[in-house]
Design goal:
heterotrimer, A alpha/beta (465), B alpha+beta (339), C mainly alpha (328), A: 465 residues, 6-stranded mixed beta sheet, 4-stranded antiparallel beta sheet, 14 helices, 17 strands, B: 339 residues, alpha+beta, 41% helix
Amino acid sequence: MGKLTFSMGGVHPHDSKYARECAIEELPLPQTVWVSMAQHLGAPAKPVVAVGDTVKVGQVIAEPGGFISAFVHSPVSGTVKSIAPRKDLAGNPVMHVEIAVEGDEWDPAIDRSKTLVTAIPDDKAAILDRIKACGVVGLGGATFPTHVKLNPAPGKVAECLIINGAECEPFLTSDYRIMIERPKEIVIGAAIMQKVLGGCKCVIGIEENKPEAIRAMGAAVAELGYPGITVQELRKRYPQGGEKQLIDAVMKRQVKSGGLPIDVGAVVQNVATSLAVYEAVQKNKPLITNVLTITGDHIPGNLQHNYLFRIGVPLSFIVEQAGGIPQTAAKLVSGGPMMGKAISNLDATTVKGSSSVLYLSEAATRRHPETNCIRCGKCADACPMGLEPFLLNRLYKAGDIEALEKNAAQDCIECGCCLYSCPAHLPLLDNIRQAKGQVMGVIRARAAAAKAAAEAAKAAQQPQK
Amino acid sequence: MTQTIIWTVAILTVLGLLLALILFWVARKFRVEEDPRIDEVEKVMPGANCGGCGFAGCRAFADAAVKAPNLDNQYCPVGGDEVMQKVASILGFTVAKKAPQVAVVRCNGTCANRPRTNEYDGVQSCRVKAALYSGDTACAFGCLGCGDCVAACQFGALSMDPQTGLPVVDEEKCTACGACTKACPKHIIELRAKGPRGMRMYVSCVNKDKGPVAKKACAAACIGCGLCAKTCQHGAITVTDNVAYIDFTKCKLCRECEAVCPTGAIHGVNFPKELDKDAVKKRIADRKAKAAAAQASSEAKSASADRPTPGLRESEVGKGVMDAGVRGGAPVKKEVANG
Amino acid sequence: MDKKYIVSPSPHIHADISTTSIMRDVIIALCPAILVSVLAYGWAELLVLLVSVASCVLLEWAVTKWMLKKPSTVGDLSAVVTGLLLAMNLPSAIPLWIVFIGAVVAICVAKLPFGGIGQNVFNPAITGRVFLLVSFPAQMTNWTPTPGFVALPDAVSGATPLGALKEAIKSGSTIPQFMAANNYDLASFLWDAGASAGEISAGALLIGFAYLLIRRVVKPWIPLSVLGTMALIALIFHGINPDVYTGVPFNLLTGGAMLGALFMATDYVTSPMSTLGGVIYGIGIGLICMMIRYFGSYPEGMSFAILLMNCAVPLLNMWFHQKKYGRA
């Protein structure tokens, strides 16, 4: 098979993967960690420890607060100091459990040896339970609880499990490093998920700018010999790693607007998630560590790192350990430069989905003054969802929510291609994100009204029966 | 040649007549029967179509007013009582008078009071900024300064003050339509009673952080200390979530809260005289001493305890207003008497 | 954090592209054709170009500064492009004050009143050109070649090939007779069609357009549909009566067809946004242009065709949209 890619839109930013040669280092433990209760999509977790409790590494400190939610475990051993709101990286208060670190005593149930466990358990329900109990969530960005995604609604059959190793965001190298350093674990994780999904085929998609990763993963697949797993080379094109784009690239199918990947028989999981699944199922290790890249443009090589960090370590501690913030940095970003969040509060802590700290220079990141739209259509050419950002921007300014819905503002995946490619430097995505929110609000309100009406009709029928 | 002209005229005449007939027929066939009172009501409306009443425009308001059983749920903030009386007289309803209101910006986080902690570089829109993060200062509740309220105001009553970075309300132009209160993602702007001759008190802060945090973020923040609530004689001030709020229906404009506020978060506007803080503080201290003395004496005469001197409170209040600089205008006097 | 770091919504990086860079590319793409015309028509042509560009830029600067009181948009080079395109549509012998009037119409009537760059409905350069064509027909069709830096072997004096042909057919001669009488050779049109700067050399224009394609400034669909439609119509009519209707190469290589199709019809602002809309827009231009050439009183119809189709652009934008992901 040749190189695959998605069918519409996309941009080609310079990949800037300067930290690709930095091997993963283990970050030392700080004195205090703050573990967020909202590090996954869905309802925040509910703390189950009290102030003054002593906890071990891997002990449950919070349980799911709803169906779509996840367990949270202590990343360190020590004493719970407080359970209180604390500002996240956007400055908004979120409930955190503060733990003072004392030693490094692990829960004895966790297998900390390096031996590879290749035999996959047979009981699917037990595997799912283990994934859920270990608090595994999608590490590709959305942090959707993995056990929910691996348990499709009745009647929906998974035909293909896509393991996302595209890492299409510039600068990020954490996925690349784990694919090189721990390919076998990732493949076993993929085989476990494949089994849970009923033995569908599995494709590991990796972009062409990471030949070493393609080679390492290919070798691991060949050596381990699980049936139905292949490595697929993808073209370098952003946003190749977007869920909908990856399904389009690999399966040549498009998820309907408002639908889920499982509707077209696809389940997409990130390579880091696959590794977390391996550790959860084979080693009983909850999701308490992840790999994070520290890099940026025009910064010296000794400031660039790939760190294995304990989830809950403050960003300021990581930055300090990595050698401090370079003088040239004008903006700090958590995540990739296309979809990451700017950090306004370095005291914020890392969460399960943290993938990087980027230092961007003034020249690279400062926005240019906005000028008139010249109707060049470059935004529409760049949009991987086939939307017309210039039109959505105009409709948003006019406040025409009906027309926004008609023109599919709600389909926006916020990839940033439109703003990236606009020669007039219009704040397209800034406005479209708002428009999307407004349209989603209208859609939800309508669905709620329809549901209420249906229930009312049902209630009216009830007495007759 | 002549023939051509004749033909042209003839054909165009016939065509014109034919089309007129069709138009006539269509107009009759599709005529919508409308209550003529809708037009009448619409005529007395301000015609700004601002949506401040909650309807799409003045005609929608008129339509709803005609269909409604009474006017209790409808009010035109722009036209105010004058217009509402006219509408009521057309429709044969009665409406109660409402006090005129004005938009009040409840944030005092000027550039000087509230140091910036980062630099915002996105689109100049409060809505976008609020969705992104808590803002470019340490205060997560205050004005974001991008001017969504200014853009929302149809009457040109709002403008950004470049010196403070905060919006300023032009009281003459403000119609209290409420568009700005809806546009502000931080809900800083509130419609408050305009007050007698524009005099009114308000807490110019909505920061819910605990005192030290709020104070660190902004020098003029309400720290929720509760001094104002303790001082207020009229029960107009409540402190919830570390922030004080003055109920304008209860406030008697005595300005005592303004005098005792340690951060200057409480503002009194349009008072003819500047507040003499020391005098007011002294007055409060005197009253407290008196009250303590009264209590001591009442405790001494424990048998017939519970009758404080009647009338004392009211006279105190009146004095307060006078001291704070009101020259005894009629409306104020009246209100005080009622209180 | 002592230093005040920047915070903004994502994305945090931007492609190295701006309105100015696009306009610069268009100017570069026009250079080969400008070079050929200056070589052919000498100082006079150079003056027309300079006056046109200078008036457009100055007018835009003056109007934005003193009348609109807005930040100047001269820096984006769009006025330079308008000036160049206008000059390339004018004969080199034209009096310079007429060039200035053309610039006034282009900038002060067609562009700025609508809100400046990106907001105009009609292509400014074509509007200026058509205004001059209607107002100063004599000067606008005086194709007396001015002395060039290189000698032109087969320059026609007095009229462009299309104009001369229209006269010839009116006076009863057939196309083959006309071609022979003027010693025309179709291959020579590719480099030298003896007309305004924009019409003289289809080859130079094609080279410039190839540069725009490589730089991904424009997409080829609009020019292809314009030229394709023109070729198809010419093929049919020439097939029916070769004596009266000109053939395919003649139509594509003369009368501003290339300049119009490659550089004017592809103007971002006044062309549809979707590919399908663009193709229909192109077909419309080709159709109207050929109808004017065959049946109208003007010898060439490119400018009118583009202006007419400019009117249809808002409608085309409303009707035709991009194909969306996951939607039928």
